[in-house]
């Protein structure tokens, strides 16, 4: 189980680094993709399922991580919020995503990119 959780946490960190690259280089596309979150049942289930798996991986990996308490708290938060969003009517979740995609300027998305990249690298480092 620890091996699968380790792989899940590493993939989650790499995902964050990849998203950070996209946020820096293609912020308009990122906002468009944000607007599509929860637009269909399949997208919603995929998004929240992967999110939930990342949270579960953090929880399972927490005893072996360099920051066990941080991994456990973050993992439970991610897992609980994924379940909460899954229980939220999809149209509400979709409308919220569209609202943010129209509200956030591309410059803000780009400015958040380094933070996202650092979080991804730190997650990987703490998992090793």
Q: What is the count of β-strands? A: 0
The whole-angstrom Rg is 15 Å
Figure out the total of helices: 6
Q: How many domains in all?
A: 1
Main sheet? none
Quick gist of this model?
The chain has 128 residues and is mainly α. It has 6 helices and no strands.
Please characterize this protein's 3D structure.
The chain is mainly alpha-helical and 128 residues long. It has one domain (2-127). It is built from six helices and no strands. It is globular and about 40 Å long. The mean pLDDT is 97.
Task: Itemize the secondary structure elements and their pairings.
Layout: H1 2-25, H2 27-36, H3 41-61, H4 68-87, H5 90-103, H6 106-127
Key descriptive features of the protein:
128 residues; mainly alpha
